[in-house]
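hey so i finaly got around to running the thing on FBXO17 protein from Bos taurus. pasting the sequence first so u can double check i didnt mess up the copy paste, my clipboard has been acting weird all day
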Amino acid sequence: MMPGAPSQTCFVTSFEWCFKRQLVDLVMEGVWQELLDSAQIEICVADWWGARENCGCIYRLRVRLLDVYENEVVKFSASPNPVLQWTERGCRQVSHVFTNFGKGIRYVSFEQYGRDTRSWVGHYGTLVTHSSVRVRIRLS
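ok and heres what it spat out for the 3d tokens, dont ask me to read them lol
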């Protein structure tokens, strides 16, 4: 359970760095290329993360906007402070809005990293849930 999280299903990391990557094809998801190239949209990304009560964790997020050949055009990275053992277990959110990124965007690469702070064998590391990529049209 992740108190405060919008979803109670989560990806849990372990004692070594764990990595999860999701590649979102914006065109396959229904965003037409002309709209992506129009400079009238924002790409909003968000991720919820937290720790177990009895074990601290470290979390990292890297989101990259890629062109049709999967070359990086722009990126966002977050490295929040680690959650210490026996501290508040509540959920935290990381979010970012990409604007004015130019033409040619096709994919969003959503990469999460995490591990526990105690090197305990098993899944005691970062809890990650309710990741999202949203495309918003900006009104002039």
